[in-house]
Structures are given as C-alpha cells and as structure tokens.
C-alpha cells in the first residue's frame, strides 16, 4: 500500500521547503531525516529499499565509487517505486559531485584528462543515469546536487558551481555544498546567481557545532544538513539534557539528540542506520517527540531546547 505523503506531521517532523535563486521556493521539499548511503557497498540497494519501506523519503548518495554505490542506490529506489511503496514526486534524492582529491583515480565518473567543467558534466550525466526512475531518461532529475567539498581554490569552486548552475532548475532542482567553511558559503551566497540551498557538514565539538555557520545559513534560508550527529557526539548523548528529554518523551537517547538538533531550525539530519528496526524507530521517535512538544509539553520542550543550546554554545 502506498504511504500517504500528505499525512499530518508534528512541526518537528514536518518536511521543509527548499529555497533557490531569487527567493524562488522550490516545489520539492526535504524530510527532516535523510537516509545516508556512504560505505554501504554491495548492501546499498537493499538498505535503500528497506529505508524507503520503513518510511524514509530522502536519500543521500554521491558520484564517488570509493565510498558510495550510486547505481545500487538507484536500484533500491527503483524497486521501492516499482512496488508502489513510494512515488518519485514524494522523494528527495540528493547526490554529489566529488572533486578529484576525493576520488579513486582508477574508478571515478570522469577522466583526469578532462577540464573542470567537463568533469562536472560527466559526473552529472552518470548520476542522472544511475538515479533515473523514469522510462524516459530525459525525465530524470536530481533534487539537490551537492559539491562534496570546496575545490582547492575559490575560483575553481566558482567554476564548478557555475557549471552545476546550468542544470538548475530542470535536471537539478537545487545546489548544495558539503565539508565547507563559513567563508566559502558566504562567498557563494554573495557572488553566485544560484546560492546554496543546502550546507552539509559534520555537527560535532571540533567545529563548535557550527554555531556561526548555522547562523549564516538561517539568515539566508539555507538548510543545514548534519552528519556524524551520533558518532561525533558521545558526550552529548550522555548529557543530562539529552537524558532528561529521552525520559520525559519516552524515547531512546539517540532519538532525543536527533530531536534537539532538529529543534535548532532549518536543520535536517543524515541517518545511516543499517537496522530496519532502527530506521522505523528513528522516524517514529522524531514524530513522537514532535507530538509531545506540540501538545501540553511545549514549555518543557522549549526549556530542553534552551538547555541544549547552552551546552553547544549557541546563545
């Protein structure tokens, strides 16, 4: 049976709108939890299929065979669509252009002899084919194409960005950047015709939980996409604010931490669990906490969120 994409959700779990160039609000939306597919190897197709079956509606991958199996990710998506589990229009599919420094030179979607624009075109063509869900290849599109990391120089980063921008809004709906810093994001916002819609970075103590970068994103209606949310934060998982929310809302600590991060606004999270029970539990847990926070516990939720901001140094 097809799960309805229009079922009411709590404010915490509700999908977010993406903004593109010139304040255009894109028709596609992004879920709060996006399924991450790095390092899934030959299990990629089955795990993506399972994630969609359990309720995930967003998938993150990359044109980087060293760490991702983009074609198998596409196979999992196509299987779920063929079985009526989900429709393409209800999915958020995100992939990446990975610079040469992040590629295995013997297995990558472009040639080392190509120019930077040619590498981008080859990578995008490969991704569109790998993730195509239509009988007509020309109908294939990607919701967001993320630059996996800035290029060695800002002019080269701009060259990649301008080349990717040529695909927007048809074959690519929005652009993003990952593993980046505040200055690069600020430059893209000020200098490019199409600003980033997504910034995907590690959320962990070494970067002070990206307080300043997230502020810049929030001011410019950019969605901050968190990864390493659990693995990079063992101390947060053991913190009293996470423990107390978990007890109050009746969820696991991992879900409580996810919810507090989502509560920072315009934030979504990459969730790469390989356990179908955890897939289902994470989605249900966020909705449970969201409903708890929207109801009689609104004040307790706001206090928990304020305490969490204090822990991560966000005024």
From TrEMBL:
The keyword Transmembrane helix does not apply. Residues 38-238 form the NADP-dependent oxidoreductase domain. Pfam families: Aldo_ket_red. One of its GO terms (molecular function) is oxidoreductase activity. Keywords: Oxidoreductase. It comes from the Eukaryota. The keyword Acyltransferase does not apply. Gene3D superfamilies: NADP-dependent oxidoreductase domain. This is NADP-dependent oxidoreductase domain-containing protein. It comes from Coleophoma crateriformis. The lineage of its organism: Eukaryota, Fungi, Dikarya, Ascomycota, Pezizomycotina.
